[in-house]
Amino acid sequence: MAQTCRLGLLLVLLLPVVGASMPSTVVRLNKAMLSYVSESGKGPLQRAMQVTVPHFLDRSGEVLRPTRVQILNVQVLRLQLKFVDGVGVRLFAAANFTIKVFRDPEPLELILPMVLLADARVDQGSIGTPVVSLSSCFSLFNKAIVLDGSHSAPPALLVRVQKHIRAVLYNKLCLSVSNLVQGLNVHLGTLIGLKPVGPESQIRYFMVSKPIITKDYISLDINAVLFLLGKPIVLPVDATPFMLPEHVGTNGAMATVGLSQDLFDSALLLMQKAGSLNMDITGELKSDDNLLNTSVLGQIIPEVRLGGTPVATLHTNNATLRLQPLVEVLASASNSAFHSLFSLDVAVNLSLQLSVSKVKLQGITSVLGEVKLTVASSNVGFIDTDQIHALVGNVFEKPLLDHLNALLGMGVALPNVVNLHYVTPEVFVHKGYVVISSGLFYQN
Fold first, then answer.
1. pTM across the whole model
2. Does 429 lie in the same domain as 311?
3. For residues 277 and 284, what is the distance between their CA atoms, to the nearest angstrom?
4. Which of 16, 35, 210, 227 has its CA 20 to 30 Å from the CA of residue 284?
5. Is 84 in the same domain as 155?
6. Rounded to the nearest 5 degrees, what angle is found at the Cα of 168, between the Cα atoms of 68 and 146?
C-alpha cells in the first residue's frame, strides 16, 4: 500500500496539472547556443567514438589469423550543429581515427578520416519534457593514411583492413551518438523537477506543446505552476496565452526567455497566501537600525498584514509593484493585554528592478512617491492622518523595504536543467512581459 501511495505521489508531481490557470513562459534557444554546444560537445563525442573494434581475420597467409585492431585516439576536428526548419537539429562532425593493427612482424598504424552526419528530431515528451531522437545517421570514410614509420603493408591487406574497420564503425558510431542522445534526454528530464521558492512553496515547469523550430531557433512553450503546501496556485481568471514576439532581447544571445504577466501575478499570489509578506514587527524586525524597535510605535504595532493581493505592472522599461498593507495600532493595558486603537490602510508604490543570478530571477524595490495612509477603523474617534503620516511613514517604510527585498532576493527559479546556468544575463521589461537575454554555461 505504501508503495502504491508513493507511486501516486510521483505521478502527481510528474504529470501536468490539468484544469488550472497556469502562467506561461517561452524559452527560445538561438544559433549561438548551438555554437556553444558544438564547442563543448567535442570532448563527449570523441569519448563516445572511442569504440571497440573486433579482431580482423587476416587471410593473407595459408592460415586464417585473427589480428587485434585498436582505436588509439579519436580527434574531432570539426563539430557543427544547425537547426532544421520544422524538424530539429542536424549534426556534422569531421574526425580522424588513429588506429593500430597488431600484425606480425611489425604493427601497422594508420589514420582514417571520417565524416558523420545525423538528424535529430526535437519533440514533446509525455511528461512535458523535450525529447530528442535520431531520425537519420550515417558515416562517410576517406582513404586511410599510413603513418610514417609503420611497416609497409601489401595494398590488398590495407584494403581489407580498411573495409573491416569501416564496417564496424559504420554501425557503432551511430549507436554511440544515439546513446549520447539518450543521456541528453535524461538530463532534459530535470526540467520538470520541483524547485523551491520558499520554505513551503515550489515551482515546476513543463512543456505544453511541440517545439517550434525554425532555421534560427527552437522555441519551447512552457507553463509554470507554483505550489503552496503541495497545492497549485490558481489565478482568479483564466491566464491568457502568451506569445513572445519574434525580435526581442539581445542579438547573439544563446537563450531568450519570455516571462508573462501571469507568472508575476501567480508569484505574488503565492507570497500573499503563504503569509510571507506579513511582518511581525516585534518578533522579526529586531535590529539596531529598525526604528520601530526604538520608537513608541515599535511596541504598539506588532504586525503588518497585506490587505490585498500585491499587483505588479509591467510597462516598457519600467516595472512597478503596488502593496496595500494594513497597520494595526494597539495600546497596552495594565494587564499586559493589547487593545486596538485604530488601523490604517497603507498604499505603497514601488519601483521593481529585476536581475538574474545563475538560474534565479531576483528583484529589489524602492519607494515611488509618498506612502499613502487612510483610516480603516478607529476606536478613538477622528484620526488626523496628516499628523501621524510623517511618523508612521518614516518608521514603516524602511522595515517594509528590508523585509520585501529579502524575500525578492531569494528569487524564483527560471526554466533550467541540472548544472546549466544563465550567464551575463540582461533583463528587458516590456508591456505585459519580461525578456531575459542570456548566455548559458554548463557546469560539470
1. 0.85
2. yes
3. 12
4. 227
5. yes
6. 60
pLDDT tens column, 385-431: 887 776 666 656 777 888 899 999 999 999 999 999 999 999 999 99
The number of folded domains in the chain is 2
**Which CATH number is 330's domain given?**
3.15.20.10
Which residues does 429 contact at the CB level (< 8 Å), separation at least 6? 314, 315, 316, 317, 318, 319, 354
| Coil/strand/helix, residue 28 | strand
Q: At what angle do helices 42-49 and 31-40 cross, to 10 degrees?
A: 50
CA nearest to 311, candidates 277, 343, 285: 277
> Grid coordinates 508573462 are at which residue?
260
Separation in Å, CA 77 to CA 63, 83, 355: 39, 21, 38
Pairwise CA distance, residues 345 & 402, whole Å: 20
The DSSP code sequence of 300-349 is H--EEEESS--EEEEETTEEEEEE-EEEEEEEE-TTS-EEEEEEEEEEEE
CA separation, residue 65 to residues 56, 104, 162, 392 (Å): 8, 11, 17, 96
Contact (Cβ atoms closer than 8 angstroms) between residue 214 and residue 247: no
353, 319 Cβ separation under 8 angstroms: yes
Range of the domain at 183: 31-189
Residue where a domain terminates, one of 189, 207, 222: 189
pLDDT in tens, 246-292: 889 999 999 999 999 989 998 999 998 888 888 766 544 444 544 44
DSSP readout, 186-253? Answer: HHHGGGGS-EEEETTEEEEEEE-SPPEE-SSEEEEEEEEEEEETTEE---SSPPPP----SS-S-TT-
Which residue, among 103, 44, 101, 95, has the nearest Cα to 72 in the 3D structure? Answer: 101
Q: In the structure grid, which three cell numbers stand for residue 406, read together?
A: 529579502
Residues in the chain: 444
Residue 36 per-residue DSSP state: H
CA angle 184, 114, 185 (to 5 degrees): 5
**Quick check: is 141 in a domain?**
yes
Backbone angles phi, psi at 362, to 5 degrees: -120, 165
